[in-house]
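#help-structures

NK: newbie question. if I give both the sequence and a SMILES, will the prediction place the ligand too? trying with zinc ion
OV: yes, paste both and it writes out the complex. here, I ran yours:
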Amino acid sequence: MLIDGTGGPPHGPVDIVIQGNRITAVRGAGTPGLPMRANRDPKADHEVDATGMYVMPGFVDLHVHAGGAPKNAEAEYAYKLWLAHGVTTVRGVPMAGNDLTVKEKGRSAKNEIVAPRIFNYQRPGAGWDQGSIDSPEKARAYVQWAAANGIDGLKLGAERPEVMTALLKTAKSLNLGTTAHLQQGGVAQMNAIKAARLGLGTVTHFYGHFESLLKDHVVQPWPVDMNASDEQWRFGQVARLWDKIHEPGSPEWKAYLQEHLELGTTFDPTLTIYSAGRDVMKFRNADWHDKYTLPSLMAFYEPSRSNHGAYWYDWTTEDEVAWRNFYQVWFKLMNDYKKMGGRVTTGSDSGFIYQTYGFGFINELEMLQEAGFHPLEVIQSATMNGALTLADPSGKAPEFGMVRSGLLADLVIVDQNPLQNFKVLYGTGAVRLNDKTGKPERVGGVKYTVKDGIVYDAKQLLADVAAIVEKQKRAPKSTTSQQ
Ligand SMILES: [Zn+2]
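OV: that's the protein plus ligand as structure tokens.
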């Protein structure tokens, strides 16, 4: 059964012919209800018998970091978890420092390492030795340097208006992509609509949306004892924005989305990465931690004044209620944009806030469905929409993100129907009662991930990850202890 990523309905049975790293044909293999057609040419050197399974385009995760010490010293851990969950392309924002990311991007392109395709987005100033970007002149010089040094796009913050203008204009002229986390410190000067008017490609996270829609204020009405450097304040208070804005469906709300639609802004919400805020117990105890989360990564998630995203100093019922309310409005904003024809994509930002690589990406699919997306719309966001967002700055058509003759062979194969339940895509599968045995069992988990024509056994990738985790658990404490 094929789900092609464009939004078209599932159909099958089909044969997918791959030569080298390209799909060369997608053809009917028979009629539903009848035996498969016999003598289906061409005979292949290698055949994956996916009878009864579902095939989708490889997933695109538009917001990743590869970790590094003290969380997970080796990028291999993240790479294998991504591939094991069907993620064949990642946009690092950044994935790692520029030199390392350029090197890893090249090795992945040549398939010298087991890793998804890598797009290298970097923060202004990353990788060069000319200091911070504090003027329009420096902004232009940096972007020119970036374009010549293996950088595909910019990961921006809420930069000062004149610097933001120079960064965005220069990036556009050099065919570099742009995505921005419009952080609270700068958002009063550079919210999402102001950034989009200057040419920003993608708004990632939620920062900047609600600040563009504030009803009675031009800055968020923070409590007077606010301290934005304290992460419980920072992450706790942002949720309190949900009822300070023009209401969902109001003329201002509609005008806001309409302007983004006309500007062609992509929304990459990363719903998953804040989801522990509405139920920290759920993600602290997620099914996958025991076998697949490194102790060093788990330690990083635990309440800590020094680790980013570990803001559970005194996380209360009231904090979770605020986040649940916030999510309802955020979901509506994303779903309304989708309904108008706006592009919404999938990004996970895993490696923080109890979200482990790969698993966090599947959680994003579940949350888009919660936002009101039909499962086929979720798959479209996770495949074609991501590919379009990466291809757009180059002015070329995407080479992946759909299952179609002529495109690169990036596929996800699973022995359950993901439209029926996205949980079957988790490496730990979905729990289902087997009525024949009367016992619950775990079903699903991606079976094969095909990246660039290479078939990876997803269960083997997970076994590799489990071994990495087991090894760290057995190692003497002195070599694994983290600050
Ligand atoms: Zn991030």
